[in-house]
Amino acid sequence: MIDYLRINQANWNSRVPVHVASDYYDVAGFKAGGSALRAFELEEVGDVAGRRLAHLQCHLGLDTLSWARLGAEVTGLDFSDAAIEQARGIAAECGLPARFVTADVYDAPQALGETYDIVYTGVGALVWLPDLTRWAETVAALLRPGGFLYLAEFHPFTNVLDDDTGTRVVRDYFDRTPQVWEYPHTYTGDDVLEHQTSVQFDHGLGDVVSAVAAAGLRVEFLHEHDHTLFRRFATLVEADGYRVPDGAPRIPLMYSLRASAG
């Protein structure tokens, strides 16, 4: 199998300085008191005050620290040492208590050595993981009895549609072949990356739900959303996120899932 972990670590380490400086992440706005969380996440997760929360694949830690601002006792984990260094710096500058650990997500139970009330995974995370069964088992191992997983993600259906209109099926939804990409930029702008190769893995919605259930977690809800965080298709319009224009048939652009431990 291709050495996806080494390739992706190099790619994400080279993205970190670009992301920190970008308007997309708006690190300055966060330091000034902003939040990186979406309204539907806040509603669906609920009150986190006093609860222990682990954020897997936390990147710069802005989502992690947003939960800390709401009273959670947070731990963030990411395989990019450059990202974790930034996350620790942002936490210190903001005066927010947080623990950040550098490790592969599959090694989280050993790397963290603790269990949590909430395991949170933010958008754009699962596409970097080849084995969802192992991921779900990792999540289950991190949860205390009565705790829950909360996952917010881009809907996999969007990956089969053409990038211009989002109306034509041009890719195979069931293709699970690793996708090797050579792309000079990241999603935040035109800066050229030092390491431009990445490896991604497509997973269907059924793959996610089945992996979570097989790990012994009880699915509480699966919500599909008609909006997303960026102009995924050229035809989307900005309206409380990005959506299809009024009058056009809607498609699922994101989803969220919550599943509890016994």
TrEMBL record:
Keywords: Methyltransferase, Transferase. Residues 56-149 form the Methyltransferase type domain. The keyword Methyltransferase applies. Pfam families: Methyltransf_12. Gene3D superfamilies: Vaccinia Virus protein VP39. One of its GO terms (biological process) is methylation. One of its GO terms (molecular function) is methyltransferase activity. It comes from the Bacteria. This is Class I SAM-dependent methyltransferase.
